[in-house]
Request: fold
Amino acid sequence: MKHLSLLPLLLAIAAPAAAEEIGECRFSRETLTFAGSRVEQATCLLRKIEPLAVRKPQPLPPVIRTLMEGEGAPTAAQKAAAIAAFPEPYRAYAAQWADAPISRTEEGLPALYFVIHDTSTPFYANEPFPKRLNQDWKVNDFTPYMDGTFAKAPVAHIFLNRVGQIWAGHDFQEAWRATKLESRVVGPRARGRMVHIETVQPRRFMPGATTRARTYGPKPGFTKDQYRMLAALYVYASARAGNWLIPAQHNTVDAGIPDAHDDPQNFELKQFAKELEKLVNPPRKGR
Reply:
């Protein structure tokens, strides 16, 4: 009887571990999925990120809400339009791997999240941003992301600079990690559940700051070319996944985890949606 009396206590201890949810958007260790419907997840993961990682609610644009409410995937025409939008040489690379499967976790769960980052580099400290920021060679150079300057391996699947050029650090079929949620909290089990896009955006110190936790990027934070390519990458990755991925941001994925990054700064969801609309619902000829 004494052994039986311990059973409720043991169950109570075990239950929270199985049902644990991580962060503000409530990521489940068990299902490797954020809480709620696809619309609810996107709404939480696409909150507006302001300086110092202040997160504020914002409505989902109609095109994203429609995609999240549906059960479909990009059509062959949408996939082809996305590939056609890419600049060379990435266009040829994307076409070569267009029918390859997307990443999966070690347990076989397919990629579900399309995570947007900003590089937060080059870092100018107290120096001003270049006058011709978007065309500056140092800002747009991919070399530091591929030569071991920041890590032994590229930190994301895709790097997208301010003139719309694309470099693949890893193909989408490779299970990779680029958030604290994946690398430090959940661990290897989470690899493959997210694909990661690094958009080039420099930073400098806020007035009086001496720590990289207090920096800001330029405004506008993203260029039109970056929004256009980001939308094309989203359609392309979703086509390879076989369903519309849930768009997310680095900071909101890690929200609630200590020392979470504050990117992407100055990301305008409406601008991304505007470019996505052009690929998903192109205007008919004669209209």
About this structure: DSSP finds eleven helices and eleven strands in the chain.
